[in-house]
Amino acid sequence: MSTGDKEEHISARSQKYRDQYLAMDVEERKAFGMWTRAMRAIGVGLSEEEKKERQARNEYDKDVKDCTQCEKWRNELLQTSPIVRFMSQHLSKSGAPVSQSSMPCIKCEEMRSGGFAEDGTIQLCYNRLFGKGHLETTMAHEMVHAYDQANFALDWYNLDHHACTEIRAASLSGDCRWSQEVMRGNVGFLKHHQTCVKRRAVLSLLSNPSCKSKKHAEAAVNKVFQSCFTDTRPFDEIY
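The structure assignment produced for this chain is given below.
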C-alpha cells in the first residue's frame, strides 16, 4: 500500500469512527467515554510519544509519593523511635547533631537503602525502602557511622577504619536481626548475627576505592572483627 493509499485508508477509518460516535445516544457516548479513558489509562490507543510521556509522569508521581512517605516516616522516627532518639542524643553530645535537613530522602541508583557522607549528611534512599521498620534500621546504621566519625579519628580510605565502622553499624543498628535477614533471603541460626555482620561489612568495603578485591575486603574485616564487634559504644550492649 502506498503512502497516499495509507493516508486515505486512515482517513476513511477515522470518518467511520466519527459516524459511529455521532450515531450513539447520550448514555452510549458516556459509556464510550469512560471506556476510552480507562483504555488510555493503561496505555491502549496511545502513540509511542504519549506512552513515554505517560511513563515519565507515572514515574514522577511515584517518586513524589515515595519521597513524601520517606520524609513522613523519617520525621516520625526522629520523634518516636527509641534507637533513633538514643543515637540522636549521643550525636548531639558528640558535637554532631542530626535533624531532618541533614537526613534528606533521595533517589538512589545503587541497591542501597542509605549512605553516609563525610560532611555528616545521612542519605535515605526513598526508592529502596521496604517499610518504616527498614527506614528505622537504615537511619540507625548511618547514625552509627556519624557517631564513629565524630568520636574517633576515622579515615574512610583506611580499610581497617572503614571495616570497623561497618562492623559496628551492621551489628548495633539491628541491620542483622533475624527478621532482616529473612527478608533478604538469608536464613541461618548458628552464629547468624556474626555471619551477617561480616557479610554486610565486606559488601560495604567493596565500594571503597582503597579496596582491591573481595579477598582484600574480607581480610580487613577479619583483622579488626573481634575488637570492633565487641565495641558497642554508645550502647551498653547490642541493640
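Interim note for the steering committee: The longest helix spans residues 48-80. Confidence is low (pLDDT under 50) at residues 6-10.
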